[in-house]
Amino acid sequence: MKSLEELKKLRDEALDNVDLRKQKANTRIVVGMATCGISAGARPVLMTLIEEAKTRGLDDVVVTQTGCIGVCRLEPIVEVYRQGEEKVTYVDMNPEKAKRVIAEHIVNGKIVNEYTIGAYEK
């Protein structure tokens, strides 16, 4: 680092990488990782989603985590946000279900209805 300009450029690049709002992701997958989610098995679900997205080369998909989503009894909870579509909330998730959500919903655009909060409540 030789100048203040180089430092500023480095800082701006780091901020761009961290700021999710500037990412050009068409799909954002959010996993509830509060204490309730972690104790229900959210960490393996998160890792499966990340690995599946990476394995399939889904560069326009961001997998991230959040705190409590608010329905602890339905954890692990995964929310899918796609541009131009309504949010889809999947509940009582596990790694196998996460793989199916990636394959059917994220890749093929077909919501896995039996895993959604609406189906669970019926």
Summarize the structure.
The chain has helices spanning 4-18, 35-40, 42-55, 95-107, 117-121, and strands at residues 27-32, 61-66, 78-82, 88-90. The chain has 122 residues and is of the alpha+beta class.
Can you put this structure into words, describing what you see?
By secondary structure, the chain is of the alpha+beta class. The protein is built from five helices and four strands. A four-stranded mixed sheet has the order 2-1-3-4. A hairpin with a 5-residue loop joins strand 3 (78-82) and strand 4. Helix 3 (42-55) crosses helix 4 (95-107). The longest helix has 15 residues, at 4-18. The N and C termini lie far apart (60 Å). The mean pLDDT is 90.
Task: Please render the helix and strand layout as text.
Elements: H1 4-18, E1 27-32, H2 35-40, H3 42-55, E2 61-66, E3 78-82, E4 88-90, H4 95-107, H5 117-121
Parallel strand pairs: 1-2
Antiparallel strand pairs: 1-3, 3-4
Helix pairs in contact: 3-4
- Residues in helices, as a percent range: 40-55%
| 3D shape | globular
**Largest sheet strand order:** 2-1-3-4
Strand content: 15-25%
Q: Count every helix, treating DSSP H or I runs of 4 or more residues as helices.
A: 5
Task: Describe the main β-sheet briefly.
Answer: 4 strands, mixed
- The counted number of beta strands is 4
Structural class: alpha+beta
> What is the N-to-C succession of helices and strands?
HEHHEEEHH
Distance between the termini: 60 Å
Mean pLDDT: 90
- Write down the Rg: 17 Å
Low-confidence stretches: none
